[in-house]
Amino acid sequence: MSSDATMSIHLPPTCEAALLERFLKAEAMALWTVRSARLQDVPPNVYAFLRKHEEDEQQHLAQFETMIGRRPRERERFPSVPRQWPALAVQLYGYESLGLEFATLLVTLRPDLASIREDELVHVEFFEQEIHRLLRSEAAAAEQARISARAWWRKLPRTVDRYLDAAVLDPCRQTLIKLILAAIEQRFRETGLLGGKEATMMPSVRLAVGEDP
Ligand SMILES: [Fe+2]
Ligand SMILES: [Fe+2]
């Protein structure tokens, strides 16, 4: 499921530099988010995983810094993350799922970076298990996870659109948005985070999607 469709995309080699630039930012963001998450009150097994997760994201970031030849802009503070574990779990699961889709896209142009995608898959699978655990746990935690998922999902089209904002990506941008959103929607539905009606709640970016280039 999921990133199979993204894998079928064939981007022209001219998109490579723009994708690498985006990864520099996204990996820095992933690293800061994991660092913020480690400061929260999370279950012990999650805390243990986040240490390994942080190492992975640090290594990914270093790889992009080397390839591009510069570092991302420093931040004074880590990005804020939800304090409640069900909401935080959804955020981590969501962004890792998005990271996996982008890594899948990257690998179509740079097969030598396949190990990054493999790491992202491990991250997604870990948080997916945690989401399953939450949805089977007390009703309040499950409900909080579902509410957070709907809120995160509503913001996703704008996030993806912003992420793909590069002139060189314009010709395939709408197709990419469509594929990435569909992959994440499917993932969220299969885990049980999204129920029946959310797709119709998709904001306007989704409505603009549709024509292949
Ligand atoms: Fe990463
Ligand atoms: Fe990751």
What's this, in brief?
The protein is mainly alpha-helical. It is built from 8 helices and no strands. The C terminus is likely disordered.
Looking at the overall shape, the CATH architecture is Up-down Bundle
Sheet/helix structural class: mainly alpha
The mean pLDDT is: 88
> Biggest β-sheet: count, sense, barrel?
none
What shape does the CA trace take?
globular
In the CATH scheme, what's the topology name?
A: Ferritin
Rg calculated over all Cα atoms: 17 Å
What name goes with the CATH superfamily? Ferritin, core subunit, four-helix bundle
Instruction: Find the count of extended strands (DSSP E, 2+ residues).
Output: 0
Topology, element by element:
Layout: H1 4-7, H2 16-38, H3 44-68, H4 85-109, H5 114-136, H6 139-163, H7 170-191, H8 204-208
Can you walk through the features of this model?
The chain has eight helices and no strands. With 213 residues, it is mainly alpha-helical. It has one domain: Ferritin, core subunit, four-helix bundle (Ferritin). The two termini are 24 Å apart. Helix 4 packs across helix 7. The radius of gyration is 17 Å and the shape is globular. The structure holds fe (ii) ion (2 copies).
